[in-house]
């Protein structure tokens, strides 16, 4: 555990030696070494050292963090080409990766909370420092204050638990909290982060104003912090939770449907993808709130699938933006005639986004639908509407941007760089290869239910 942490710390001085692609190479190497370091335990903690340890949930999300951060460097080649403070950019990205690594692998509740909040600062610097428009300041303030306002009550609850339990290790949190204000104090920060409908307004603003790397880390990892926190803390409310959960479950399902309708009337490509993230994560939130095995495992699968798929779509939106100099669907038309290779990747990623086989999204949605319908059969109405409109806005995004006659008079497009093809392939390949090993997840659900 500590070896990866010190390896990441040693990358910080390397980032100031004008070795942009070397840092990216090392980040990919860390991803592969991390996979090899996994020794195959299923539900118990292992590799425990200091305040750090892993179970399958932590392992999956740390691996996703390594992968997305590696791809963020690959996607930001223009920063290196234009000499836009790329050394500072690399340092911010490595600090962000360190904070995410500690957040996901920490066994101590206070250390988790501390680095959960610290990860906000590099993301804010990425948005304000390398964003595209003056509105990025407003987007950064939205992001900061939404999270900070909801996280302070959680700190008070951590002090309360510390006094009551005397230690704050995740595996020993066996206290039973039965009050709604305690439920809200702990979980509201995760509802904002995931984000739940009514608390989601910071997300489209932050996505639209962020550079491509900021959008990738927001969609790929930062939303998963909310899901991870909920999965870790729901055990504290095991005797009380169904009274409160049904209320939040209905809000998230209704919100997912409403956001799917909002997606259909978006004209900005990044805004549409950002709102689709809210819709997908509302399904994840509903699965976690059902508190059964299908819901918990389905939410993990869906978080991994969404992290890869949504990040890839933001990369594609950026690739089109670099060529057309607009993200508007009214100007991005007829791209199938001009850059057909990217249209193929657009089709592959959008088909994954609407949960078509053989993507990991399909497996996640099947598991979540099992879970939510098992909780109450009335949820089938909202789930069917969400699934249908998910396909509607995905096809709307593809058909409006790729078909039609090209709007501008600029026809001198080159077909794309090898870096861009590698970037998109590295999003799409894990998303569809992991589907082939889904019998392992079913096996883990079975073994977990027996234990």
TrEMBL record:
<dbReference type="GO" id="GO:0008137">
    <property type="term" value="F:NADH dehydrogenase (ubiquinone) activity"/>
</dbReference>
<keyword id="KW-0249">Electron transport</keyword>
<keyword id="KW-0679">Respiratory chain</keyword>
<feature type="transmembrane region" description="Helical">
    <location>
        <begin position="342"/>
        <end position="360"/>
    </location>
</feature>
<dbReference type="GO" id="GO:0003954">
    <property type="term" value="F:NADH dehydrogenase activity"/>
</dbReference>
<feature type="transmembrane region" description="Helical">
    <location>
        <begin position="241"/>
        <end position="263"/>
    </location>
</feature>
<dbReference type="InterPro" id="IPR000260">
    <property type="entry name" value="NADH4_N"/>
</dbReference>
<keyword id="KW-1133">Transmembrane helix</keyword>
<feature type="transmembrane region" description="Helical">
    <location>
        <begin position="180"/>
        <end position="203"/>
    </location>
</feature>
<feature type="transmembrane region" description="Helical">
    <location>
        <begin position="421"/>
        <end position="446"/>
    </location>
</feature>
<comment type="function">
    <text>Core subunit of the mitochondrial membrane respiratory chain NADH dehydrogenase (Complex I) that is believed to belong to the minimal assembly required for catalysis. Complex I functions in the transfer of electrons from NADH to the respiratory chain. The immediate electron acceptor for the enzyme is believed to be ubiquinone.</text>
</comment>
<feature type="domain" description="NADH:quinone oxidoreductase/Mrp antiporter transmembrane">
    <location>
        <begin position="106"/>
        <end position="389"/>
    </location>
</feature>
<feature type="transmembrane region" description="Helical">
    <location>
        <begin position="215"/>
        <end position="235"/>
    </location>
</feature>
<dbReference type="Pfam" id="PF00361">
    <property type="entry name" value="Proton_antipo_M"/>
</dbReference>
<protein>
    <recommendedName>
        <fullName>NADH-ubiquinone oxidoreductase chain 4</fullName>
        <ecNumber>7.1.1.2</ecNumber>
    </recommendedName>
</protein>
<keyword id="KW-0830">Ubiquinone</keyword>
<feature type="transmembrane region" description="Helical">
    <location>
        <begin position="46"/>
        <end position="73"/>
    </location>
</feature>
<dbReference type="GO" id="GO:0015990">
    <property type="term" value="P:electron transport coupled proton transport"/>
</dbReference>
<dbReference type="InterPro" id="IPR001750">
    <property type="entry name" value="ND/Mrp_TM"/>
</dbReference>
<comment type="function">
    <text>Core subunit of the mitochondrial membrane respiratory chain NADH dehydrogenase (Complex I) which catalyzes electron transfer from NADH through the respiratory chain, using ubiquinone as an electron acceptor. Essential for the catalytic activity and assembly of complex I.</text>
</comment>
<feature type="transmembrane region" description="Helical">
    <location>
        <begin position="110"/>
        <end position="132"/>
    </location>
</feature>
<keyword id="KW-1278">Translocase</keyword>
<keyword id="KW-0472">Membrane</keyword>
<dbReference type="Pfam" id="PF01059">
    <property type="entry name" value="Oxidored_q5_N"/>
</dbReference>
<comment type="similarity">
    <text>Belongs to the complex I subunit 4 family.</text>
</comment>
<feature type="transmembrane region" description="Helical">
    <location>
        <begin position="272"/>
        <end position="294"/>
    </location>
</feature>
<keyword id="KW-0812">Transmembrane</keyword>
<dbReference type="GO" id="GO:0031966">
    <property type="term" value="C:mitochondrial membrane"/>
</dbReference>
<keyword id="KW-0813">Transport</keyword>
<feature type="transmembrane region" description="Helical">
    <location>
        <begin position="139"/>
        <end position="160"/>
    </location>
</feature>
<keyword id="KW-0496">Mitochondrion</keyword>
<dbReference type="GO" id="GO:0048039">
    <property type="term" value="F:ubiquinone binding"/>
</dbReference>
<dbReference type="GO" id="GO:0042773">
    <property type="term" value="P:ATP synthesis coupled electron transport"/>
</dbReference>
<keyword id="KW-0520">NAD</keyword>
<feature type="domain" description="NADH:ubiquinone oxidoreductase chain 4 N-terminal">
    <location>
        <begin position="1"/>
        <end position="103"/>
    </location>
</feature>
<feature type="transmembrane region" description="Helical">
    <location>
        <begin position="85"/>
        <end position="104"/>
    </location>
</feature>
<feature type="transmembrane region" description="Helical">
    <location>
        <begin position="380"/>
        <end position="400"/>
    </location>
</feature>
<dbReference type="InterPro" id="IPR003918">
    <property type="entry name" value="NADH_UbQ_OxRdtase"/>
</dbReference>
<feature type="transmembrane region" description="Helical">
    <location>
        <begin position="300"/>
        <end position="321"/>
    </location>
</feature>
